[in-house]
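Bumping my old thread because nobody answered last time. Still need a sequence for this structure:
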């Protein structure tokens, strides 16, 4: 009887068992991704300097076999982590979800942060969330280009923060990214989309279903597609969000 119960529980919570088993390897994997990102940025700067100093095109060497193998392993780990993210984001404990985001995905998260159900995070090591901020249900935080969220920010349900994109005029449809910054006490309302290379000023409000493609000045209210200024917000904001619940 107990053996049957054990296997039933194992089948029900198999993905969470995998999270426990692979938490440490995935933490090291994310640390490695962060290190390689810094190395890639340094390499891009050197290549740009070399391009400026010579008229001859740079011939990039082909990747050796062992690097192709490591690339294959990277793809497996990235896919596996994405699977676990989709399972953990619905785990019925706010505290457990935060532990996974903070200690496995390396999200820089301060005290009293609230992460509701269904939040999908990409490149968590590039995500910083200030104290008291709230992220609603089913949000997507694409931090590949870097996302900085200030204190007491309210990000409502179904919001998408995209920092990665493509250059539509590039012959090779090349990837590009840009940092996204949301300052203290800003409110991003439901179903809004905010793109990279954008700064949402302190106390600003982005209305529901808006698409933000440019900077938003502090204490302004924007709405529409693309988002435009439609009002002003009072500057006497003093509220602070302090949530300490573990289960919900």
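Sorry it took so long. Here it is:
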């Amino acid at each position: 009887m107990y053996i049957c119960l054990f296997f039933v529980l194992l089948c029900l919570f198999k993905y969470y068992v995998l999270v426990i088993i692979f938490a440490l390897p995935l933490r090291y994997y994310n640390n490695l991704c962060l290190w390689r990102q810094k190395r890639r940025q340094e390499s891009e700067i050197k290549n740009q300097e070399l391009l400026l100093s010579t008229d001859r095109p740079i011939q990039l060497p082909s990747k050796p076999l062992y690097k192709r193998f490591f690339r294959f392993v990277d793809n497996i780990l990235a896919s596996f982590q994405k699977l676990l993210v989709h399972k953990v984001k619905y785990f019925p404990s706010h505290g457990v979800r935060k532990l996974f985001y903070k200690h496995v995905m390396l999200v820089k998260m301060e005290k009293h942060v609230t992460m509701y159900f269904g939040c999908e995070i990409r490149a968590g090591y590039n995500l910083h969330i200030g104290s008291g901020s709230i992220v609603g249900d089913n949000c997507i935080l694409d931090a590949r280009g870097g996302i900085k969220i200030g204190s007491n920010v309210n990000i409502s349900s179904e919001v998408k923060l995209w920092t990665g994109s493509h250059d539509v005029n590039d012959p090779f449809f090349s990837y590009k990214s840009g940092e996204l910054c949301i300052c203290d006490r800003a409110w991003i309302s439901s179903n809004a989309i905010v793109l990279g290379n954008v700064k949402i000023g302190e106390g600003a409000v982005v209305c529901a279903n808006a698409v933000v493609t440019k900077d938003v000045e502090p204490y302004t209210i924007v709405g529409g597609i693309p988002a435009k200024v439609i009002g002003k917000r009072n500057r006497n904001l003093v509220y602070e969000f302090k949530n300490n619940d573990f289960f919900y």
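The two ends are 31 Å apart (CA to CA). Let me know if any region looks off to you.
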